[in-house]
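Model the whole thing, not chain by chain.
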Amino acid sequence: AQSVTQLGSHVSVSEGALVLLRCNYSSSVPPYLFWYVQYPNQGLQLLLKYTTGATLVKGINGFEAEFKKSETSFHLTKPSAHMSDAAEYFCAVSSGGSNYKLTFGKGTLLTVNP
Amino acid sequence: DAGVIQSPRHEVTEMGQEVTLRCKPISGHDYLFWYRQTMMRGLELLIYFNNNVPIDDSGMPEDRFSAKMPNASFSTLKIQPSEPRDSAVYFCASSNLGSEPYNEQFFGPGTRLTVL
C-alpha cells in the first residue's frame, strides 16, 4: 500500500521568502511522485512530477522538488514566494505499473503575507 | 479545449434525496476518475474508468454510491439515498494515460454537495 504524509497543514511565509512544503511517502515499489496545487474554488492543477531520472524536478511558477529515496521525501520549494502562490498544495504518489491510482496527502495551505 | 466540465457546481439537497453529479472529460482522454474531498479525509479516489469500463471501485464508500460512463464523453456519479455525511466536494478528472501512469490528471472545478 502507498501513502503520503504532508507535514504541516498550514504554512505561512512572507512575500519574497523561501517556500518549503514537506512531503514524505511510503511505497513498496519505486514511486511516481506529484505535486498538485488547488486555488480557491478550483480543481487541482499539476505543478510538477517525478518519474525516473533526474531527482531534482522543475515545475511551473518557479517551483521545484527533489526526490530523495533515502529519506522517502519529495519536498516542494520555491526561492521567493509571491502573493499569487497562496493556495493549497497536495503531494501525491502512484506506484505505477498497471496501477493508475493516485494517493494524495491531506494538503498544505500556503499563506503569503505582504 | 474547455477542460473537464462538471455540473452542477453546487448542489443542496435534503437527506434521502437522490443526487446525480455529471462529468464531461477532455476529448480523447481514455481514463476518468471520480474523487471526493472532505476536511476530515482529504482527497479520496472513489472509482476510475478506462475506455468507459469501471476498473477499480474499491473507494466507493457504500452501495448508495454508483457511477456510470455510458460513452467516452459523459459520466455520472449517483448517490441514492443521500445522507448528510455525503456532503463534500466531488471532483472528476480525466487523463490520457495509455501505458504511462504518470501522465497528468486534469481536474474539473468540482461539485460542492451539501446534504441537509
